[in-house]
Design a protein that fits this description.
Layout (H helix, E strand, L loop, with lengths): L2 H4 L3 E5 L6 H13 L6 E5 L1 H4 L11 H8 L9 H7 L5 H12 L4 H6 L3 E8 L5 E5 L5 H10 L9 E3 L2 E5 L8 H6 L4 E5 L14 H7 L4 H8 L1 H17 L3 E4 L14 H17 L1 H9 L2
Parallel strand pairs: 1-2, 1-7, 2-3, 7-8
Antiparallel strand pairs: 3-4, 3-6, 5-6
Length: about 290
Amino acid sequence: MNETNANLKKGLVMAGGAMRGMFTAGVLDVFMENSIEFDGAVGVSAGATFGCNIKSKQIGRAIRYNKRFSHDWRYCSLRSLFLTGDLYGAEFCYEKIPNELDILDLETYRKNPMEFYCVASDCVTGKPFYKKLETCDKNDLTWMRASASMPLASTVVDVDGYKLLDGGMTDPIPLEFFESKGYNRNVVILTQPRSYRRKTTALMPLMKIALRKYPEIIKAMQNQAQVYNSEADQIFRRADQGEVYVICPEYSLQICRTERNPARLDEVYEMGRIIASSKLNEVRDFLSGR
């Protein structure tokens, strides 16, 4: 390895997308099966909750528990939203599953030198907050929950003195952040196709009511589409120049953000596997600096 290659710091950037994240899970499982490793990873929302399995080296875990519990009201349901304020039950998803039902391998997670970050949105400042998750203990899992707490479908998460919601509201594709941490050879996984550009949500009037205590996060939500589109434009432009490597669906996945059909989840997961498998040699070459 020459000096240039020796200085490469390999990063993995994972966007969110709720149950479109099954695409990311498929990509990651192919990476793990083929010993493609990174020095660090950063995930937004589902990119964090499913992406953490690459650090604990648990192939198949994300698709397994999502299919197993897809119809359990404690996992995701209007009943959970009514009773707890969270569509995805906080206690069930971030305590019972990782500690009892489909155990997160904390020993492997903690021994793996790969850095892992999640992105959450600070409701008070309207800015993204990047949290390094070193142990995946209860506090780290709360940060992960914050990263994936969609507005209107979740309560504001209080952790370490912050009030937080979904990281995709403020930094949906955190490539710039990772480059600021020294990662100079980055693979970006998106759950939308290259042609996709976001529009301002039609739910904005409801957002303004639900988040009226947090005017700065409302401003961030109003700019969310512009931020995503700008980041996507830049990332694909740089991908064309060989500066980053992007893996994304070839077309819209056409899956509900809260999809509960195990067969549909499996289809999207397999799409991720197929695309990742077809690009293995290109990814290896890119990460090696060739």
